[in-house]
Amino acid sequence: MTSVFQSGVTTPAPNSFNMAAMVLSQADRLADKTALAILSPSAKAEWQYGALAQAVEGIGAGLLGLGLSAGDRVLLRLGNEVEFPLAYLGAIWAGLIPVPTSAALTTPEITRIAAETNPALIIAAPDVALPSPCAYRVIPALALRELESTRPVAPALGDPNRPAYIVYTSGSSGHPRGVVHAHRAVWARRMMWQDWYDLHEDDRLLHAGAFNWTFTLGTGLMDPWACGATALIPASGVLPAQIPDLLRQHDATLFAAAPGVYRQMLRDQDGLDLPRLRHGLSAGEKLSETTRAAWEAATGTAVHEALGMSECSTFVSGSPRRPAPPGTSGYPQAGRRLAVLGTSGRPVAFGQPGTLAIHESDPGLMIEYLGAAEDTAARFEGSWFLTGDSVVMREDGAISYLGRDDDMMNAGGYRVSPLEVEAVLNSHPSVSESACVEVEVKADTRVIRAVYTGPAPIDPEVLAGFVAERLARYKCPRIFEWTDALPHSGNGKIDRRALRSQS
Question: CB–CB of 333/195 below 8 Å?
């Protein structure tokens, strides 16, 4: 038998649909219930469902009042503040296409993204890098407060397959790529509610990520709100060591974070008293069995992992209903159709390694890579979208993650292209050539290692400062090593596999 798995089906999204309207579908019924609380050790800011919906509807109407039209793109340059999800949903409500971006991106990075997306408007917080030169219309984040009071308009309904938002992910092409998602993407997320979260209306889900991370936007905000639950987000500046107290003080029943946050929370902790917590959720990178076991010992609760990507969110997971067997990431969520393909492009036998693929009919799958038809086509093998993840599928559908098919790196839950980092390093006048790989520096801790050639070694602090001016912090190498020659394959390409074996 071959590695093709489908369990159940999912109904398609309604023909007349709006993603933001679905996210806020519980707002009228739960108008006085807390939808969002932003937490710090000494303060709490809350928004009720009714006020949240009113703000989103007003912002949507206000953006149209500024002269924007359906399909226009809105670039979000906002920090970890409530304005981020309000602007995101407000744009979608009005039929506009938001482009959420990390506040950590540098001027060169956001300049390239702006040139590619050509936004009709940029909404910017103070001290967040903008394109240079900036020939785009910009309004400050504070202007959203005025827009909130705009007389609301009905949500822009239409084909669920039309574009709703664009997120950026690093790609093998050497620079981040725009991933265009349809309104139906939020409809597909319902498959996670049972087969990963076990999410219910009375849950209080605390997500440790920043608003601008797609993991936070989806798992931390969109899904709890669509379900009628309460979303809890730590305020900017809250440290991982402070999160256990927030979980306990605010009666969190679910906790979501990248594995690195779990590791930091467990550091120097013999036990964590979290009486209301039912279980944890992990995604962004592989959760090690060491971290999983330590969390279970410290809290008495399980961590359920999910495997996914920006192009399709998560599609494999463990859950309380069906925990992942040891050594696996879990099972395909009900309604997903997945396969493990060999080099021939055909499914391999169960138990054999291959590339994990998602069927083109999956409602959560992206529409395309922005402006990159060839790149989009290259990710498909017939009717299957290739994830680039090497896996093994058991006969019962459980999937074990083996690593990336390519050389993509993972830094704190973010996928990073080595080509992008190398391009910056190679622009240094004293660097002749460079190569970057992900390495494990101690148990459960992986960082980016840069190896370079040139006339002489360069002070690591000088190189660190050079890349920090040009790349977001999570993309910056933590290790810099000079060598007289880099390993190359027979066709002249840098042999990163050989480089990894030297670490």
Answer: yes
Q: Name the one residue in this structure whose structure tokens are 């999937």.
A: 399
- CA R_g for the chain: 22
- The single-letter code of the amino acid at 160 is P
DSSP secondary structure letter of residue 65: H
Distance CA 339, CA 358 (A): 7
Distance (Å, whole) CA 387 – CA 393: 14
pLDDT, one tens digit per residue, over 14-33 is 999 999 999 999 999 999 99
Residues 6+ apart with CB under 8 A from 51: none
Which ranges of the chain have pLDDT less than 70?
170-174, 489-492, 503
Question: 258 — alpha (psi -120 to 50), left (phi > 0) or beta?
Answer: beta
- Integer CA distances (angstroms), 48 to 27, 219, 439, in order: 9, 19, 44
Do 218 and 100 form a contact (C-beta atoms < 8 A)? Answer: no
Q: Note the pLDDT of residue 286.
A: 83
What's the rounded Cα separation, in Å, for the pair 256 and 236?
A: 16
Q: Are 278 and 320 in contact (CB under 8 A)?
A: yes
Strand partners, 382: none
* Nearest of 227, 200, 225, 233 to residue 49 by alpha carbon: 225
d(CA 179, CA 160): 16
Residue with tokens 């009900």: 334
For CA atoms 386, 389, 391, 393, the dihedral sign is: negative
CB contact at 8 A, 196 and 207: no
Residue 375 burial class via C-beta count within 10 angstroms: exposed 0-12, middle 13-18, buried 19 and up: middle
Name the residue among 254, 242, 243, 234 with its Cα closest to residue 37. Answer: 234
- Identify the burial level of 48 via C-beta atoms within 10 angstroms of its C-beta, where 0-12 means exposed, 13-18 middle and 19 or more buried: middle
pLDDT tens, residue by residue, 189-205 = 999 999 999 999 999 99
What's the start-to-end Cα distance of the chain, in Å? 39
**Encoded tokens for 283:** 């995604």
CA gap 249, 99 in Å, rounded: 34
Q: Is the pTM of this model over 0.85?
A: yes
Q: For 285-304, how does the pLDDT look when each residue is reduced to its tens digit (9 = 90+)?
A: 888 888 899 999 999 999 99
Classify residue 442 as exposed, middle or buried by CB count within 10 Å of its CB (0-12, 13-18, 19+).
exposed
Distance, in Å, from the CA atom of 435 to the CA atom of 412, rounded to the nearest integer, reads 19
Q: Label the pairing between strands 409-411 and 414-416.
A: antiparallel
